[in-house]
Amino acid sequence: MRKKYMSKRAAMTADEVEKSSKKVVDSLIRIFGSGDFETVLAYYPLGNEVDVTGFIEWCWERGVEVGLPKVKNTVNSVSGKMGDMCFYRIDSFAQLSKGTFNVMEPVEGVPVISLIRSKMNRAVDAEGCAKEGDRSTEVFVEEKTLVATPGVVFDREGGRMGYGKGYYDRFFNAHPGLFKVGCAHPCQLAPHIELQPHDVRLDAIATGD
Predict the structure, then answer these.
(1) Segment 43-78, tens digit of pLDDT
(2) How far apart are CA 146 and CA 47, in angstroms?
(3) How far apart are CA 48 and CA 21, in angstroms?
């Protein structure tokens, strides 16, 4: 299934990606405006992924803080399992550079984001992100944070299939209070995705249809 839908997305023209992405951005803005959100976690598009940079810029214009991900470890040297990703607050695309898997990632020196659960009133740093050297730390409240989420395949019930590395599922399992929105072109929507026990269902899907 993953290969089939990656091929569908790869076949999109630049014009199709642009038009679809604008619709997704409009949907993200509506979702953000309809909830009690204060902060956003997003991503920088790779290839024909939905381009959410317009949503990021919309947030910055309104003083909404935005974080983007960076892979911390591709493989844990002790367990041999896939590593984790951390999010960092940026206020300009100039604070990004090409990183792991050729994805644009936050540069060194930008603040790392520590997530706090409102009911626990303490930060949950399952990935050890806040322990990185002398980085300053920004605190986001999980329940007030919207996550614009990339992927390869989605269904309308919140099912998601990524690239198979499990970074987002591990992150979401560690931070269940986040409001997770899948960002999908119409060609990325499947009738149904059979989720595995470790997969996390999204709260909403923003589509370009």
Answers:
(1) 999 999 999 999 999 999 999 999 999 987 655 444
(2) 23
(3) 10
